[in-house]
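Appendix B. Chain record.
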Amino acid sequence: MLARASWRCQACGRGGHLDVHHVVKRSQGGSDWDLDALVALCRRCHEQIDAPFVKGRLIVIPRGGGQFTFEVVTVPRRSLPYPLDVEVAHWPARGALPPNLWPVWRRH
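Structure tokens predicted for this chain:
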């Protein structure tokens, strides 16, 4: 998997120490063996995966064949209708997401 990424971060292209990130968390059914759901990230990008939205969260979108699209999603603090510790990335349906945030998420 790291060789497929040419030993570079697949989000920013940095070399050096790389982490393997599960696009689908193991606790949610992700696999250590599905290479299309694993991405090589540098420590900085890997930390941005769980960053607060007001700081900019890195979103990994699998395209298949070991290819991924990366996008940083930022939501201004004043537009958040909930506390910052609520995890919106895993809300299951459009109706569960506050309507003022749906345009930010519909691309995903």
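Further analysis of this model is presented in Appendix C.
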